[in-house]
């Protein structure tokens, strides 16, 4: 008579099927098609609505992202939205296109940095931080890039417009959120700020909250048109160099936000050089 141990060894082991945490190939194909067909990045909620019921969109995105990681095109998330981008190590292939784009002036880079870190901020507040007058042309250039937008109006005499950055700004500099902007130590480490800073100097920590603050009121119809048609406050002495400002030299603009060694990010109360006084 067989022992109990022998009987147990002869019995087939019970199969334990692993938890199915992988998206089905057909689901990945649908997700891939949606992302490729869109001309703009898509948020997770929109993708979930377009996918069949029961699909775990978060896991499907993670799986698709992993599959594309070693390829020439990567699935990336920018400004909390998903899109396909050329792999970072292949950016040299785009050199010809990038050299044909126009450059941002130093003044525009400084203004962009101030808006990014201090938003919501008015033009007068930008001038106070820079220590020089900011021409309307500089603001216009940044509006044309789509990296800044008028948020609302400050509840102060004159009701000045307040400015903030856009999702286009996050996308341009490959930031998932404004919280990814470099902090004080990072800026000092890259040489964008002097290591010997005044006592109490700090770099603001902007948030992605688009809700108007207590000291802001909503824009009214025609406010944007008024901004575009408003005459310049002073002669556009910088019109020649700054009219050329647009998209990249993106690497220069990144000096104002993420990374660069070309320019100093004016995130605090640094004044402008004498060459900017011509504005």
TrEMBL record:
Gene Ontology BP terms: cell division; chromosome separation
Name it.
Answer: Segregation and condensation protein B
Keywords, alphabetical: Cell cycle, Cell division, Chromosome partition, Cytoplasm
InterPro entries attached to this UniProt entry: ScpB_csome_segregation (IPR005234), WH-like_DNA-bd_sf (IPR036388), WH_DNA-bd_sf (IPR036390)
- Alphabetized Pfam families for the sequence: SMC_ScpB (PF04079)
Lineage per the UniProt record: Bacteria, Pseudomonadati, Pseudomonadota, Alphaproteobacteria, Hyphomicrobiales
| Chain positions covered by the region annotation Disordered | 1-20, 191-279
Q: Where is the composition biased (Low complexity)?
A: 224-234, 242-258
The answer to whether keyword Zinc applies is: no
Bias kind Basic and acidic residues: ranges: 260-279
| Native species | Bradyrhizobium ivorense
PANTHER family, alphabetically?
SEGREGATION AND CONDENSATION PROTEIN B (PTHR34298)
